[in-house]
Each structure stands twice: as structure tokens, then as C-alpha cells.
Design brief:
The chain is mainly alpha-helical. The protein is built from 10 helices and no strands. The longest helix is centred in the middle third of the chain and has 29 residues.
């Protein structure tokens, strides 16, 4: 690896770590960089998943204050993310390369629509719960739906990590009543779990570039802390706007590159 490749990958890792902590589309920075530098798509995907995992953990730690009192929620959602990640990695390693690519832009567009309408839908859900005398508690059916969608997002994240944070924020924003910043912290934990599980599987059965992993890991840890500091200071409206802007850029990039 030539020196300027190493610098470019490291900088991409920092930027991806920041984006993942705030929203969750960092792969759309690092993946194109790796492919442009000559790494095969599968190697770029697997190395990226492992390399960004420490940054995802760093971002989750940065939101530790917003996660206070959320242990029960995390314990109910983490298994779904973990099992989904395992399924997603199996799909990546067993299905044809173009089997999932065509649906990725559609999923991101759907997530952006959900993010945009989330405030009105959440208000409607809150009014319905109040009328039913349930307060802010989710019904059993709502909990099952939430866990199922988190599981499906885990599959997506295990296959192609880009914008899983956008999907999680959209899903939780509609089905949960916690503050947006709290949801962002939960999103970081779930995304970190998916990246770690996928990374562990890839490390044993998939082609990996370990120098790339090391550079992305260092950069993403730094970026995760920087992103957490920035993201925690954003208002809900600004954070939602960031989600829409980054998610829209993700769709444009996916369509333009044909990935």
C-alpha cells in the first residue's frame, strides 16, 4: 500500500466514523474509496465492516448519557440486531453480487420518507396511546413490529452496512416515544452490534485486507467521538435534516456508481 492510499483511507475512516455517529451512512464514504483504490467489492465490503466496527462502538460510548435508563430497551432489541446481522453476512457470502444491490436505493428512499413524516406519525401514535389509556407504553403488537423491523434492518446491515442507521432512526422514530437524541444513542448501539457480528464472521470466512481494517479502525474511532460531540448538540430538527441530506446523498451515490 502506497503512503497516499493509507492517508486517504484513514481520512475516509474519520469522516465515516463521524457520519455513523450522527446518522449512519459512513460506508458510503469508505466503500467507494476502497473500490476506487482497486480493492474487489467483496473485500472492500468485508474490510469496511470490520474497520468501522470500533468507530461504531466509539460513537455509542459518546452517547452514553442519552442511553441512561435504556437498558431494558437495548436488551429487547440487541438480539434482533445480532441475529439479523448473522443472516445478512450469510446472504453476502452466498448470494450473487447483484441480488441485493437493486433494492438498496429503494430501502434508503423508504427510510427517508419515514424520517420526514416521523413527527406527525409519532404525534398520532401518542394521541392514540393516550386515548387508549396506555400512556407512552408500546402495545405487545407494537413491540413485536419494532423487534421484527430491527431484525430486518440487521439483515440489511449485515449485508451492506450503509444507511442502516437511517433505517433504524426511521423505524424507532415512528414506533418509539423516546427523544430523538436518545433514539440516536440506541441506533449507535444497535449499529455497533451489527458491525461487530458481521466483522467477526467476515474475519473467519471472507477475504480481508487487514491494513485497510487497521486504518479504518483508527480513523473511525476518532470520527466516532467527534461525531458524537457534534450530534449531541444538534436540535431534533437539525438532526432530522442531517438524516435526510446524508440519506439523499447516499441514494444519489448508489445510483450514480451502480453499486
Amino acid at each position: 500500500m502506497v503512503w497516499w492510499h493509507a492517508i486517504l483511507i484513514g481520512v475516509a475512516g474519520v469522516w465515516a466514523g463521524m457520519i455513523n455517529a450522527v446518522v449512519g451512512s459512513g460506508t458510503l464514504v469508505t466503500f467507494p474509496v476502497l473500490v476506487a483504490l482497486g480493492y474487489p467489492p467483496v473485500t472492500a465490503t468485508t474490510s469496511n465492516a470490520i474497520g468501522l466496527a470500533p468507530g461504531a462502538v466509539s460513537g455509542a460510548i459518546g452517547y452514553r448519557h442519552e442511553l441512561r435508563g435504556q437498558a431494558r430497551t437495548l436488551l429487547s432489541l440487541l438480539p434482533a440486531s445480532i441475529v439479523g446481522a448473522v443472516v445478512g453476512t450469510i446472504l453476502l457470502l452466498s448470494l450473487p453480487a447483484d441480488a441485493f444491490e437493486t433494492i438498496v436505493p429503494v430501502l434508503i428512499v423508504l427510510a427517508l420518507v419515514l424520517v420526514v413524516i416521523q413527527p406527525k406519525v409519532s404525534a398520532w401514535v401518542a394521541r392514540r396511546q393516550a386515548d387508549a389509556g396506555a400512556g407512552a407504553r408500546r402495545s405487545a403488537g407494537g413491540t413485536v413490529l419494532l423487534v421484527t423491523l430491527v431484525f430486518l434492518t440487521g439483515i440489511y446491515g449485515g449485508y451492506f452496512t450503509a444507511a442502516q442507521g437511517v433505517l433504524l432512526m426511521a423505524i424507532m422514530g415512528i414506533l418509539m416515544t423516546e427523544r430523538l437524541q436518545t433514539l440516536n444513542g440506541i441506533k449507535n448501539v444497535l449499529s455497533a452490534a451489527v458491525n461487530i457480528v458481521a466483522g467477526v464472521v467476515y474475519a473467519f470466512v471472507a477475504p480481508i485486507s487487514w491494513p485497510v481494517v487497521a486504518l479504518l479502525a483508527v480513523g473511525s474511532v476518532i470520527g466516532g467521538q467527534l461525531g458524537a460531540k457534534v450530534g449531541r448538540k444538534l436540535s431534533p430538527r437539525m438532526l432530522r435534516g442531517a438524516i435526510v441530506v446524508i440519506g439523499s446523498a447516499a441514494v444519489v451515490q448508489l445510483v450514480a456508481t451502480g453499486w
